[in-house]
């Protein structure tokens, strides 16, 4: 069967695109949603059930419908949750909200198009032409569709160390993907933990370890040792403030403008929030060189100011640092070797250049999102080999045009093939959080619906 649309993936992007297709497609259209995750829609971010895992965006900005910004807040009220529009709900609740909204749209069978949900992984693409795209699935079936939306996420970054510098015997002590939270059940209460990476993933894992009864030392090692900044407490938040962009045709100019404004007493968080609606445009106005420079020198700073944590999460984490339970180091990982009890970790301290080493029972990879184009996905690698897709110039993800249409080897859009979310960061940059992905999901769904109505 040739479907009108196939959505490939099973995280937030896939559920957001599906929800918008349900509202926009004509009744005659057929859609297949192909994903390998049993908790469809939750993906890496929203499958957690730990109450300490909070959203890092206030509830008032997390609706899946851009034109109904209070939809998630209404859901929280209906379900007697105590979170207000400027509070931070649990990520588990957000996953439930998405599934509720999907379920109520699916119930309206008289008005909606047909949707088949197929639990499988798309393994390779065997045709991509004007007549449609055909995939092999890992259940042995073939799936064809006139329009395809790739919602594959970007995967987990690898350890910042070549394989040759990791003892084979140490591998069993390394948690490469901490998002499968089952790893926590292997950890003893007093085990020594080394977390690589000091961003949001690290904070999540520290809090999960504590809830799980871990009471030992947690060492955090990252290149710069920078920690995510907190949101201001509710009631003390500045509204978004427009940044001075007049003379800022590049990142240095923008930063200079920021410093001037902050020096003049303007709240930096308000400025970051004021930048948000124009970030995509600003990114697109930069040359490839300027973008590359930003990634080399500014990314770590951008991440900690832009992707902030709830104030109450920050308080909990700070208390653990003050009590000596969590120690944060800035340094470069050099080797991981097996030792009698666990592993020995060697690093070079950032400030002094000294070589240090310490022992741990577990190494947890919290280096975050992969930003290596298509490396995480066998499907995308195969499509790249066939010339059906290309990596963007900076290697962040796929080359897409301004309408999220995937560009093939010749640089032309592949008919009916779209990508959403962080895979499209080369074109949009600011496309990793719900407020941006929901707009992209709606735009793509609307473009597809328009072609089917013609
Ligand atoms: C821990 C965490 C917390 C976050 N918190 C927030 C927040 O508070 N607010 C906010 O706005 N944003 C937040 N984000 C960012 C954002 O919401 C997510 O990055 C978003 O969920 C991305 O979803 P995705 O579907 O693109 O990717 P993923 O969640 O990675 O999902 C991709 C899915 O596709 C499936 N898949 C991959 N390949 C195939 C294939 N070949 N065939 C079929 N299926 C396949 C995978 O199994 C996976 O389930 C958070 C992100 C993380 C990781």
UniProtKB/TrEMBL annotation:
Record domain FAD-dependent urate hydroxylase HpyO/Asp monooxygenase CreE-like FAD/NAD(P)-binding: where: 6-154
InterPro entries: FAD/NAD-bd_sf, HpyO/CreE_NAD-binding, L-asp_N-monooxygenase_NS-form
Database matches in PANTHER family: BLR0577 PROTEIN (PTHR40254:SF1)
Protein name as annotated: FAD-dependent pyridine nucleotide-disulfide oxidoreductase
Organism: Rhizobium fredii
């Amino acid at each position: 069967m040739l479907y009108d649309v196939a959505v490939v993936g099973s995280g937030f992007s896939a559920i957001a695109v599906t929800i918008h297709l349900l509202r926009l497609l004509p009744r005659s259209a057929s859609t297949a949603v192909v994903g390998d995750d049993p908790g469809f829609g939750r993906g890496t971010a929203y499958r957690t059930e730990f109450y300490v895992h909070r959203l890092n965006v206030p509830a008032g900005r997390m609706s899946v419908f851009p034109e109904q910004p209070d939809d998630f807040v209404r859901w929280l009220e209906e379900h007697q949750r105590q979170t207000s529009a400027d509070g931070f709900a649990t990520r588990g609740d957000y996953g439930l909200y998405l599934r509720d909204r999907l379920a109520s749209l699916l119930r309206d069978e008289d008005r909606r198009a047909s949707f088949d949900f197929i639990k499988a992984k798309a393994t390779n693409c065997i045709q991509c032409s004007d007549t449609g795209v055909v995939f092999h699935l890992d259940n042995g079936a073939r799936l064809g569709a006139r329009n395809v939306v790739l919602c594959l996420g970007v995967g987990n970054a690898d350890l910042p160390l070549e394989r040759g510098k990791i003892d084979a015997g140490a591998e069993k002590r390394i948690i490469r993907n901490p998002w499968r939270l089952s790893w926590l059940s292997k950890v003893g209460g007093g085990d020594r933990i080394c977390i690589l990476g000091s961003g949001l993933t690290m904070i999540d894992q520290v809090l999960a370890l504590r809830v799980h009864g871990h009471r030992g030392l947690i060492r955090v090692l990252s290149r710069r040792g920078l920690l995510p900044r907190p949101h201001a407490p509710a009631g003390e938040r500045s509204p978004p403030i427009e940044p001075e962009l007049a003379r800022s045709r590049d990142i240095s100019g923008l930063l200079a403008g920021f410093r001037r404004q902050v020096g003049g007493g303007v709240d930096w968080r308000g400025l970051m929030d004021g930048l948000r609606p124009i970030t995509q445009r600003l990114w697109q106005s930069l040359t490839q060189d300027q973008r590359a420079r930003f990634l080399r020198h500014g990314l770590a700073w951008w991440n900690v100011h832009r992707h902030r944590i709830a104030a109450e999460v920050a308080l909990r984490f700070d208390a653990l640092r003050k009590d000596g339970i969590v120690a944060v180091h800035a340094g470069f990982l050099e080797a991981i070797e097996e030792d009698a009890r666990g592993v020995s970790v060697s690093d070079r301290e950032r400030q002094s250049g000294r070589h240090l080493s310490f022992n741990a029972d577990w190494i947890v990879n919290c280096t975050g999102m992969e930003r290596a184009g298509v490396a995480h996905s066998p499907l995308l690698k195969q499509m790249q080999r066939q010339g059906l897709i290309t990596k963007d110039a900076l290697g962040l993800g796929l080359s897409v045009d301004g309408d999220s249409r995937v560009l093939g080897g010749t640089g032309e859009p592949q008919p009916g093939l779209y990508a959403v979310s962080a895979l499209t960061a080369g074109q949009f940059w600011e496309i990793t959080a719900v407020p941006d992905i929901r707009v992209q999901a709606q735009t793509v769904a609307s473009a597809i619906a328009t072609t089917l109505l013609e």
